[in-house]
Write a structure and sequence with these properties.
single chain, 428 residues, mainly alpha, Serine Threonine Protein Phosphatase 5, Tetratricopeptide repeat, 21 helices, 3% strand, rod-shaped
């Protein structure tokens, strides 16, 4: 549309000029004594237009000639800038493709180009950021090449105050935090968890709670055997959904188990147990492990039973909720914690067995409880019913062993020998 309007305008100007020139009979007389010159007005106008055009073109030409040195310098700077950005992109591409020597070389080329621009008195607004990124890429490539001196050199250069891009403070903060996170990860790769944790501690609070920082912290604390701190970090990662729910639960369970295993006395174990969340203490694996550890350290049987009570409720209310191994460990832990004076738990076990008469594990546990109370006849009946139906070989062997001892008390040698034989076969 615009071209059409321009064409119409030019056509109108041409028509107006033709009409004006065709009907213009005016003349211009120039007196230069003793001469007189008569010129057509149309000719004079054309001559003036040509003279103006020639003068304008000459002035533009002289201006262009005067600008040639500056234009040449600007072109050279643009070429250096393009070479710098191209070298940085090449360094990143080579790093991602695993060509670390080429990546470091390209990063050094970008640094050289940036230094050349600064020495020429034409620093780029983003030159500082480019310099930090180039140093960071070179440090990453050096880390992959196991060249620690070169890595530390480039890392120090990236973290130096002179490398801060002053015109863009937000970019400066992001670059510094990214460099610190990278350094922490490298320290972790070097099996130096203390250095990694120190680097993470230097981060601002917001950056330290990012998923990447928490992942590094989790690995560092586990490597440094700071189990409590690792557990807290794993909980945060679970809340941030850094892992799947199953993976997060598995990690938390493993760290909590390690925390319980590392306890050296009942006081330390109790402190570790109370430091766990309520849902963690309800995990059957943790509760059983903690109770067994407490029993090993000489803890009170009543406290052992209290820790096992949530798992016991799961076994009673939902017999199929616990895996066979967990149920086996629960029964074993309760067996060691049943003393002769705990009538309440005896009644609880008997009630559970009566509510689930077909569960051989509850029959076995009720039989053991009757043994503790010296109820020999009832113990004999319950153990005899449970022994053939128990799936766990260890529990079956224990059941037959108890039956053998009861038979020896009665003086039934044949029954005792048969029971001992069955126990030996299950243990074989």
């Amino acid at each position: 549309m615009r071209a059409t309007l321009w064409l119409l305008a030019l056509f109108a100007v041409a028509v107006a000029s033709a009409l004006f020139a065709g009907n213009n009979q005016g003349t211009i007389t120039v007196f230069w004594p003793p001469w007189r010159l008569d010129l057509s007005l149309n000719l004079v106008l054309i001559a003036l237009a040509l003279a103006f055009t020639t003068l304008y073109a000459a002035l533009r030409g002289f201006a262009a000639l005067a600008q040639l040195p500056r234009q040449a310098q600007r072109w050279r700077l643009q070429q250096k800038e393009r070479a710098m950005h191209g070298a940085l992109l090449d360094a990143l591409a080579q790093l991602m493709s695993g060509r670390f020597l080429r990546s470091r070389k390209a990063a050094q080329a970008a640094l050289d180009q940036e230094a050349s621009l600064r020495s020429a008195g034409s620093p780029l607004p983003q030159g500082e950021a480019v310099r930090v990124l180039a140093h960071l890429v070179a440090a990453d490539a050096s880390h992959a090449l196991q060249d620690r001196p070169a890595r530390e050199h480039h890392l120090d250069a990236a973290l130096s105050p002179a490398a801060v891009p002053a015109p863009v403070p937000l970019l400066a903060q992001d670059l510094r935090e990214g460099t610190q996170l990278r350094a922490a990860r490298w320290a972790l790769d070097d099996r130096e968890p203390a250095a990694a944790l120190a680097g993470l501690a230097a981060l601002p609070q917001g950056a330290a709670r990012r998923t990447l920082a928490l992942r590094i912290k989790l690995k560092a604390t586990r490597l440094a055997q700071h189990t409590q701190e690792a557990l807290e970090t794993a909980r945060l990662l679970g809340k941030h959904r850094a892992f799947s729910p199953a993976a997060a639960q598995s990690i938390v369970r493993g760290l909590a188990t390690e925390l319980i295993r590392n306890a050296h006395d009942t006081e330390q174990l109790t402190t570790a147990w109370l430091a766990l969340d309520a849902d963690e203490r309800a995990m059957p694996e943790l509760a059983i492990h903690a109770a067994q550890r407490l029993a090993e350290l000489g803890g009170e049987p009543a406290q052992v039973r209290r820790w096992l009570e949530p798992v016991w409720q799961q076994l009673v209310e939902r017999p199929g909720a616990l895996a066979e191994l967990e149920a086996r460990r629960l029964v074993g832990a309760l067996e060691t914690a049943l003393d002769a004076f705990d009538a309440s738990w005896l009644a609880r076990i008997e009630a559970a067995q009566q509510a689930n008469p077909r569960d051989p594990r509850l029959q076995y546990l009720a039989g053991v409880a009757c043994l503790q109370r010296q109820l020999w006849g009832k113990a004999q009946q319950l153990l005899a019913q449970a022994a053939p139906k128990l799936q766990d070989a260890g529990l079956r062997a224990h059941a037959w062993r108890h039956l053998a001892q009861l038979a020896e008390q009665r003086g039934d040698t044949d029954a005792a020998l048969a029971a001992w034989k069955r126990a030996a076969l299950d243990l074989a």
